[in-house]
Backbone:
């Protein structure tokens, strides 16, 4: 049974538990669990980080820990009983863990590794703490380390600063806000500025001396030298080196390392040096030969110097290599360091080029104890201490030191009869009172132990040697008296066995008779002659003799005149001995009572350090004198006491204050002194006002703290001794003293008079007296003293009076002191303090102090809160609120509005003050209860005052919320602030409701209130969603979600407003909208309904809510672009408001507003999401376009519209879409007029007139059009600008503009433009952004971009999208799917401006622009089979489904893609298809021939291949298939309406034969030698083909007009025949029959087909030549089709093909000709095949007929230039129809007439188109019958069939050409589409074009090509059809490839009218192409694709 646990409440998981049992809770090692129940070895509970999931787990997996349980029971919380540092560590490490991994992901390796180390360190330290075996001190250190590391990590990771006390986290609720602020500030500051240490230490480690000429031992001396005063600052550090220059005793580190201690900050300057002297020990001369001499001398070696300042900048760890110098003359050895410092280089030189001293030098900062802790190793390993000469800057009591330093300065010696000077060596000994040598008391320096004697160095042959060697004599104090130092002088001979010969001595006693030691300074000592060592054995003999020349009796002339002297300098550094006689006199006052007066007076002149040394003795002396003769010496003693007390204020002696305190507590015995002290003090105070000189009195007052200490202690001693006698008398004295003080304080002073200064001095020391008074007086009494004393100060001094600041400081100390902490005294002092504070804050003076006082006051209140003093506290709060709240608010406002001062130091000051005042305000507000708020609000006398107060406090709150209020990591402080603010606001909102509603409504206060609430909710530190889960949980537990509370408050206040709401509409819409965008569901639910309310009130007021709408829309844009809002918000907004307005009368308009706003949100969210991505892609641009259009069309917001125009413009520039960028900017340009209206500054535009801006825009746009190679558009703008310049007579600019225009024309002619591909993209599925969802677009591809690349790019932009594999329109399931589907295929543009395209003689460079610009319509063809499929000849049933897409805007435009506005479907009949195929092939042939004639081809191959392809296909059965399909009786009978078309087809076949003949002639002219055999074969095959067509000779009329290609292209025929012949479809079109629109169109189709991409090009050219621009256009369009080369590809992929084709053909009008050609050829061949197929017998007859007809009918129309558009435009579907109709009658006639003509003229309309049209419209029986009539020629003859095959003779060719049909079809498709696009205007022709497009498939459709071609076409057609059925577009092409033989129903594309929407994606162009080629090669004879007769025939 499960039993709730009593103590087992909290534990840590020891091992992971999978939780596989029923109800098992999976645990991971390290999780903490809370345990609820227990049962037989199992616990039930939950993991603390996920308390919602409860389960069971085994007891054995849990390590239990102690814990506190809060509110036991169902909702108990468990807090582990462990050190708070551990808790913090654990939670912090968990947070870091996650962030640490993120660092790795973000590639911040450095921080990653550093953090890793720190985390490991923390874990180690945590273990130590947990184990719990640490000593108290060690635990403290460990915690310090831990917290330091935690803080470091938090700072690095940008986490919050943790306030701490004693290393543990502080709960902000447990301490007052001011305290919290202080802690945070302290932690924050600690990071910023470490205080500079006042003491410094230099660590020196002697490493080695490197030199070439060593070989002797060395002594190295370091000391610190003051170059400014030329004296040593420290004693010497001494290291002995062995012969190799290394330390002699390496094991003893203290012999080679030292610390020069106690350097003051003033010693770290440039002219303080470390000086190193090096002495060698050995022979006299360095290079002497080794003689027997064993005597060693100390001789100079070298010197090195380094400045201490260099160490401050150097890296402390580096070793220094110092250069060693030697002196040029040995006698200057004592000054070598000075010379080096002065750089007197003549006096020294390097002692060897490679001599160097390796030393480690490091400056350490801080006091020595601190260093012992920080550099433990250094001290434990051993380091000697080298002291300063003299005391350090700060003398520490208890420091023991007794060092006598003696410097051997110089000597003067006589020659003594020798010719050379002596080599003098001095030996130094210290002897005690008994004449015994003191052992070990002569030290050469620290580092080596003391010796018994010291030998100076020897200077060679020098009778006036200067040694300047300093030694230290550390003689114990008790041995000082009677000791002396003896100096013995010896001459060191270099000859006599090197002995050292004594010749004299000097001595000096250490202490004089009177007890003073040897005075500091230089002493000239007498040298006593002595040559025997024995004479010195008894020192008593010479001690009686004089030692110094200074104290010789005047009569002893002999010694005085002696020339020999020896100088020493002595310096005593002792804490025990004095050299000062006055000091001794004072201390011995009892011995000489008469000297007391004198001694007391001289005390002031004695050096402070002497007094301090004997502080206790001195004080005893003074109080002794006072006790004995107070009357006589009272004043003097008082003054001396004041002098000593003030001496201790000096920083050098401040550490002796505790000595004095101890003295007072323990040694002071003057029980009677208090009377005298009070008396003298009062005497002084009373004289203040009248005294002239205040200096002395100020000194007295300065010392008043200690004087009071003595008074009080003295009184206590007296009370103890006497049992409290004279108590009353003492009190009276004190009261009188205070009265005097009050009197002197109350003096008013004008300005800074001496009295004012004295008052200031007293106030500074006054607070220190409280503590003393409390020792005797009661608290209330002392508080009374203080209150009255402070109260007596003059109230208002001048503003500049220094007294004011002092007064504040005094109050600050009072408030911080013991007295104020006591509640009893506090209530007495508070009014005084408040009065002063209030005064200062109102004046805005001394704010730093005010803040300090206030902080102290408020932190006290907090502490008292829980005690019994509750009512008292409440009263205090009331008092403070009453007097300070208002002024505090004003102060904060004032400070925060001041401009921040520039200097950083000043800035800190201000920052501090603001922060502190803010903390005070918060602390005060947090203390206020209901009662306080009520009293506060009632206290306002008038509404105005209350209003001002509310405005003020709301403004202050707004300031507090500012992000810059606190440093960014102070979240704790911010949350406390917010908590206080929200509590206060809840109290104040009542006041608002009561006082400022209804008639007393005050807009300003309400506005301020709402504004504050909105900022409050939006502040970053409350956005819990952005925090880590642990932090969020903590905040929610402690404060809840304050945003929701504030939101509810806003809502209730809004509801209270009633009709006043109107004042806030629309002003508050923006702010409230911002609040609702906060991602907090509760908050949104509360706030969104306010909008409904606003709409309602606005509706009542003005009958609509346009204002609300406008404001919402404006605001939404800016807020959402900042990243606010999300999809759920949009849904909430929509649903909540729709629900709200259900019952409103204005429901309709409401719904529309909500819908608009929601739609805008959709777009803005999409926009924001897109913009987050990296590089510019279609999505970003599409999204921007969608938004921009929304702003313009739906919202009519011009400014936003313009903004987004510019955003879009920038995107295009970034993506290098220059053309689109131009179109985008044009949108703005078009909004402007050429006027002088001034425009304001906007975006990046300056203030300028409208004209200037428009001019600027024009120039920018022209520049971009230029970069985008859209020169034609640039030219239009150039003209417009030129007109403007001309109208202003600005000829300079006009000229520039004309030149620019000219340069653009040049570029059109000279530069190559790539022809883009166009792709149709469908975005299906709900996962797409709104602007794409379930829409289809046509996209302009990038340069060189083919279908595969485009598809890949789209999939990269939409990585989650699935590419659909078919081109059929998707169904609803796909539309509604929760996914993204992309359907992509290529489409062919249908150009609008057929006019240019159909003209002859227009260069391709120009045409290419019209072919691919301003395109509205695109075409996609899909071949399919209708009805039963004839296995033998699939062309019979091969239809094309032609989809035409119309866009909302033409391409290119402001985007690379536009949405499809409408799609139309047309089906192209097999006959029309056949016509189109042949037409296209013919066009291609014509073009190539022209190019060849004009020598535009470097290489004749393309023509060869094309001819080969066509002839091959024709011979091998291509045309035959057409003949079989359409020229047979059955067909003509069943389709009487197709008569014209059959005629047209036949015409085209003849035309083709004619063109071929001409082409072969041209070919012969240019064919290279090696190709002759092929040419011959072609000619033979051509004759075969002709006979198959039944052509022996061309009809005379045809012959008569040779084919002129105007530009060399066959286009000359003037009569109808010529038209027919002329390559230019134009003529043909006309001729073909009346169908003018149709004919024309068909031509293009023909052209298109005829040329694959290359061919299309060719055909273009031809057509240009011929005048059939349209057809050529189509050809180009078809070009895309080229990809379709293979029949099958045409069929299958016609759409794709179409698009892809463009890539090859269409795309490159500019391509190098040869490539063009080759491409065209390849494409062509398939087409050709079809063509030939078309020509085949079936066609023959029919076609022939058409030629006739064409001849007649077309003549009128033959005009090649006829604009197809005009005629054909009727409607896409009707293209062919019309033409058919028109031409039908004539067609039949002509057919009849022409049946026989050998040359197939092109029917004016393409047969295909007519067929199609017939199909679509009404069948034209006429045309059919004529054809029938013509049937005879029709009979397919094998030859004819073959002729179609002609093309495929060579495999390659056949691949490409042989697919003539298919490629044609492909081409045609592409061309057609292209044409169509461009053509859109002429619908009928368009029809043709469509056909052509269909042709794509049509090619395939043609009658079975001769074997190869037909098969290929068959396959093609077949495949496509099949494919369509399969719905796998891409495969089309593949299909075709794979099953070349399979007859395919006509591909849809064939049947589709060109305009119809393109079917689903066509197969990729490339594939298509290849496929088609292959197919063609193998084309199935059964499958000739009939192709609608192209009009081109007639052109031919």
Residues:
């Amino acid at each position: 049974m499960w039993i709730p646990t009593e103590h087992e409440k909290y534990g840590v998981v020891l091992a992971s538990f999978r939780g596989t049992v029923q109800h098992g809770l999976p645990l991971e090692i390290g999780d903490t669990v809370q345990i609820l129940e227990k049962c037989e070895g199992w616990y039930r509970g939950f993991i603390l980080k996920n308390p919602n999931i409860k389960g069971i787990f085994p007891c054995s997996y849990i390590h239990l820990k102690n814990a506190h349980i809060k509110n036991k029971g169902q909702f108990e919380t468990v807090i582990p009983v462990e050190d708070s540092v551990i808790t913090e560590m654990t939670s912090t490490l968990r947070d870091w863990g996650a962030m640490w991994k993120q660092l790795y992901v973000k590639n911040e390796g450095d921080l990653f590794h550093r953090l890793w180390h720190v985390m490991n360190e923390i874990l180690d330290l945590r273990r130590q703490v947990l184990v719990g075996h640490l000593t108290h001190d060690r635990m403290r250190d460990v915690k310090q380390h831990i917290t330091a590391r935690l803080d470091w990590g938090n700072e690095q990771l940008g986490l919050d600063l943790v306030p701490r006390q004693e290393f543990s986290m502080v709960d902000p609720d447990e301490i007052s806000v001011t305290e919290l602020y202080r802690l945070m500030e302290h932690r924050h500051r600690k990071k910023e500025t470490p205080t500079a240490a006042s003491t410094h230490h230099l660590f020196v480690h002697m490493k080695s001396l490197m030199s070439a000429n060593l070989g002797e031992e060395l002594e190295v001396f370091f000391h610190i030298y003051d170059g400014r005063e030329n004296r040593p600052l420290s004693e010497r550090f001494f290291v002995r080196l062995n012969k190799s220059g290394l330390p002699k005793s390496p094991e003893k580190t203290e012999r080679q390392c030292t610390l020069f201690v106690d350097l003051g900050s003033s010693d770290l300057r440039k002219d303080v040096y470390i000086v190193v002297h090096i002495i060698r020990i050995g022979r006299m001369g360095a290079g002497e030969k080794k003689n027997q001499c064993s005597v060693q001398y100390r001789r100079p070696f070298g010197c090195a110097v380094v400045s201490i300042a260099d160490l401050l900048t150097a890296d402390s760890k580096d070793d220094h290599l110092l250069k060693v110098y030697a002196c040029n003359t040995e006698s200057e050895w004592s000054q070598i360091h000075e010379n080096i410092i002065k750089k007197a280089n003549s006096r020294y030189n390097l002692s060897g080029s490679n001599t160097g001293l390796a030393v480690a030098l490091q400056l350490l900062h801080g006091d020595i104890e601190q260093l012992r802790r920080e550099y433990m190793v250094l001290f434990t390993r051993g380091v000697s201490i080298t002291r300063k000469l003299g005391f350090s800057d700060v003398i520490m009591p208890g420091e023991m030191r007794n060092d006598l330093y003696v410097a051997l300065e110089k000597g003067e010696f006589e020659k003594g009869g020798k010719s050379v000077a002596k080599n003098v060596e001095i030996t130094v000994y210290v002897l005690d009172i008994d004449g015994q040598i003191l052992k070990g008391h002569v030290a050469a320096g620290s580092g080596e132990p003391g010796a018994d004697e010291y030998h100076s160095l020897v200077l060679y042959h020098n009778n006036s040697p200067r040694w300047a060697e300093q030694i230290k004599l550390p003689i114990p104090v008790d041995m000082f008296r009677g000791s002396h130092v003896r100096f013995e002088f010896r001459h060191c001979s270099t000859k006599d066995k090197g002995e050292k010969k004594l010749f004299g001595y000097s001595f000096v006693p250490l202490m004089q008779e009177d007890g003073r030691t040897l005075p500091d300074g230089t002493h000239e000592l007498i040298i006593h002659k002595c040559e025997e060592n024995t004479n010195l054995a008894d020192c008593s003999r010479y001690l009686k003799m004089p030692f110094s020349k200074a104290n010789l009796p005047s009569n002893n002339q002999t010694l005085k005149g002696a020339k020999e002297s020896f100088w020493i300098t002595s310096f005593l550094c002792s804490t025990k001995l004095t050299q000062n006689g006055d000091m001794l006199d004072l201390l011995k006052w009892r011995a000489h009572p008469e000297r007391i007066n004198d001694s007391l007076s001289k005390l002031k002149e004695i050096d402070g350090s002497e007094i301090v040394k004997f502080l206790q003795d001195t004080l005893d002396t003074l109080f002794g004198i006072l006790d004995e003769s107070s009357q006589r010496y009272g004043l003097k003693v008082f003054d001396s006491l004041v002098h000593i007390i003030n001496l201790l204020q000096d920083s050098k002696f401040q550490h002796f204050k505790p000595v004095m305190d101890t003295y007072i507590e323990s040694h002071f015995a003057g029980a009677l002194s208090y009377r005298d002290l009070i008396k003298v003090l009062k005497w002084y105070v009373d004289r203040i006002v009248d005294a002239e000189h205040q200096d002395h009195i100020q000194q007295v007052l300065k010392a008043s703290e200690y004087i009071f200490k003595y008074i009080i202690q003295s009184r206590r001693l007296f009370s103890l001794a006497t049992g409290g006698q004279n108590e009353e008398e003492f009190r009276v004295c004190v009261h009188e003293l205070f009265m005097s003080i009050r009197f002197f304080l109350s003096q008013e002073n004008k300005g800074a008079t001496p009295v004012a200064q004295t008052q200031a001095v007293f106030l500074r020391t006054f607070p220190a007296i409280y503590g003393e008074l409390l020792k005797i007086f009661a608290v209330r009494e002392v508080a009374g003293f203080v209150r009255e004393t402070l109260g007596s100060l003059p109230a208002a001094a001048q503003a500049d009076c220094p007294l004011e600041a002092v007064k504040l400081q005094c109050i600050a100390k009072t408030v911080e002191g013991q007295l104020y902490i006591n509640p009893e005294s506090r209530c007495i002092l508070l009014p005084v303090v408040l009065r002063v504070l209030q005064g200062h804050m109102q004046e805005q003076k001394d704010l730093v102090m005010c803040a300090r006082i206030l902080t102290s006051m408020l932190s006290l209140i907090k502490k008292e809160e829980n005690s019994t003093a509750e009512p008292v506290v409440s009263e205090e709060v009331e008092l403070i609120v009453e007097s300070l709240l208002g002024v505090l608010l004003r102060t904060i406002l004032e400070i925060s509005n001041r401009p921040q001062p520039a200097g950083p130091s000043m800035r800190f000051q201000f920052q501090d003050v603001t922060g502190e005042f803010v903390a005070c305000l918060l602390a005060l507000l947090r203390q206020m209860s209901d009662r306080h708020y009520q009293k506060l609000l009632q206290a306002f006398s008038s509404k105005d005052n209350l209003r001002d107060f509310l405005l003020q406090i709301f403004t202050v709150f707004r300031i507090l919320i500012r992000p810059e209020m606190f440093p960014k990591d102070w979240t704790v402080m911010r949350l406390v602030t917010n908590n206080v603010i929200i509590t206060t606001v809840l109290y104040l909102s009542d006041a608002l409701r009561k006082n400022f509603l209804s008639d007393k409504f005050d807009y300003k206060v309400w506005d301020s209130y709402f504004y504050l609430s909105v900022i409050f909710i939006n502040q970053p530190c409350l956005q819990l969603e952005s925090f880590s889960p642990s932090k969020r949980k903590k905040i929610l537990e402690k404060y809840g979600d304050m945003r929701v509370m504030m939101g509810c408050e806003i809502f209730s206040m809004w509801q209270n407003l009633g009709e006043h709401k109107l004042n806030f509409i629309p002003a508050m819409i923006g702010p409230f909208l911002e609040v609702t965008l906060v991602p907090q569901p509760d908050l949104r639910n509360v706030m969104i309904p306010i909008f409904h309310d606003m709409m309602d009130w606005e509706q009542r007021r003005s009958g609509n809510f346009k204002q609300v709408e406008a404001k919402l829309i404006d605001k939404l844009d800016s807020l959402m672009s900042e990243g606010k809002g999300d999809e759920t918000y949009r849904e909430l907004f929509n649903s909540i408001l729709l629900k709200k307005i259900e019952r409103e009368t204005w429901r309709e308009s409401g719904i529309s507003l909500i819908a608009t706003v929601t739609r805008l949100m959709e777009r803005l969210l999409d926009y924001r999401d897109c913009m987050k991505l990296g590089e510019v892609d279609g999505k970003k641009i599409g999204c921007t376009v969608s938004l921009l259009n929304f702003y313009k069309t739906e919202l009519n917001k011009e400014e936003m519209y313009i903004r987004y125009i510019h955003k879009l413009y920038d995107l295009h520039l970034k993506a290098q879409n220059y053309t689109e960028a131009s179109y985008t900017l044009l949108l703005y340009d078009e909004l402007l007029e050429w006027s002088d209206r001034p425009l304001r500054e906007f975006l990046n535009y300056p203030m300028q007139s409208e004209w200037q801006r428009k001019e600027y825009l024009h120039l920018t746009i022209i520049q971009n059009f230029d970069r985008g190679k859209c020169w034609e558009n640039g030219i239009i703008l150039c003209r417009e600008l030129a007109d403007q310049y001309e109208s202003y007579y600005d000829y300079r600019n006009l000229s520039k503009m004309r030149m620019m225009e000219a340069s653009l024309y040049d570029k059109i002619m000279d530069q190559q433009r790539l022809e883009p591909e166009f792709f149709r993209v469908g975005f299906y599925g709900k996962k797409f952004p709104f602007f794409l969802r379930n829409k289809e677009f046509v996209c302009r591809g990038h340069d060189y971009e083919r279908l595969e690349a485009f598809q890949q790019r789209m999939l990269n932009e939409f990585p989650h999208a699935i590419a659909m594999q078919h081109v059929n329109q998707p169904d609803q399931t796909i539309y509604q799917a929760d996914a993204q589907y992309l359907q992509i295929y290529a489409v062919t543009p249908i150009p609008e401006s057929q006019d240019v395209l159909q003209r002859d003689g227009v260069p391709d460079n120009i045409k290419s622009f019209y072919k691919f610009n301003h395109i509205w319509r695109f075409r996609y063809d899909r071949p399919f089979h209708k009805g039963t499929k004839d296995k033998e000849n699939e062309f019979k049933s091969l239809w094309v489904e032609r989809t035409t897409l119309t866009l909302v805007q033409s391409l290119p435009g402001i985007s690379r893609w536009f949405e499809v506005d409408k799609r139309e479907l047309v089906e192209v009949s097999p006959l029309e298809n056949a016509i189109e195929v042949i037409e296209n092939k013919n066009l291609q042939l014509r073009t190539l021939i022209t190019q060849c004639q004009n020598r535009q081809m470097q290489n004749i191959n393309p023509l060869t291949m094309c001819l080969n392809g066509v002839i091959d296909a024709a011979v091998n059965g291509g045309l035959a298939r057409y003949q079989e399909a359409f020229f047979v009786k059955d067909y003509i009978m069943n389709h009487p309406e197709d008569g014209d078309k059959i005629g047209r087809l036949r015409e085209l076949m003849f035309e083709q034969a004619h063109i071929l003949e001409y082409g072969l002639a041209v070919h012969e002219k240019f064919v290279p030698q090696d190709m002759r055999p092929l040419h011959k074969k072609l000619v033979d095959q051509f004759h075969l083909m002709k006979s198959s067509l039944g052509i022996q000779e061309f009809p005379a009329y045809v012959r008569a007009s040779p084919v002129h290609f105007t530009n060399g292209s066959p286009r000359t025929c003037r009569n109808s025949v010529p038209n027919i012949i002329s390559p230019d479809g134009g003529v043909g079109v006309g001729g073909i029959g009346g169908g003018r629109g149709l004919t024309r169109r068909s031509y293009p189709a023909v052209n298109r087909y005829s040329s694959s991409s290359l061919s299309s090009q060719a055909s273009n050219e031809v057509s240009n030549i011929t005048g059939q621009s349209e057809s050529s256009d189509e050809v180009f369009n078809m070009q895309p089709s080229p990809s379709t080369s293979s029949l099958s590809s045409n069929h299958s992929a016609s759409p794709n093909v179409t698009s892809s084709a463009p890539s090859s053909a269409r795309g490159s009008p500019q391509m190098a000709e040869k490539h063009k050609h080759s491409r065209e050829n390849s494409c062509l061949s398939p087409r050709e095949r079809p063509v030939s197929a078309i020509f085949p017998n079936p066609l023959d007859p029919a076609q022939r007929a058409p030629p006739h007809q064409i001849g007649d009918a077309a003549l009128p129309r033959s005009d090649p230039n006829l604009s197809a558009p005009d005629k054909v435009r009727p409607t896409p579907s009707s293209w062919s129809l019309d033409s058919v109709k028109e031409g039908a009658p004539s067609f039949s006639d002509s057919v009849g007439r022409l049946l026989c003509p050998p040359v197939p003229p092109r029917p004016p309309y393409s047969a295909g188109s007519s067929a199609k049209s017939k199909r679509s419209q009404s069948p034209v029986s006429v045309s059919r019958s004529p054809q029938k009539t013509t049937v005879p020629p029709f009979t397919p003859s094998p030859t004819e069939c073959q002729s179609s095959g002609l093309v495929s003779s060579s495999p390659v060719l056949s691949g490409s050409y042989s697919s003539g049909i298919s490629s044609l079809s492909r081409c045609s498709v592409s061309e057609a589409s292209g044409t169509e696009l461009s053509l859109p205007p002429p619908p009928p022709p368009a029809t043709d074009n469509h056909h052509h497009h269909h042709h794509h498939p049509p090619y395939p459709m043609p009658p079975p090509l001769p074997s190869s071609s037909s098969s290929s076409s068959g396959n093609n057609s077949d495949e496509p059809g099949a494919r369509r059925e399969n719905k796998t577009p891409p495969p089309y092409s593949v299909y075709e490839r794979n099953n070349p033989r399979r007859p395919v129903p006509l591909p849809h594309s064939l049947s589709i009218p060109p305009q119809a929407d393109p079917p689903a994606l066509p197969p990729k162009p490339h594939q298509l192409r290849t496929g088609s080629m292959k197919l063609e090669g193998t084309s199935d004879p059964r499958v000739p694709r009939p192709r609608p007769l192209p009009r081109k025939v007639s052109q031919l």
About this structure: Confidence is low (pLDDT under 50) at residues 902-909, 1595-1996.
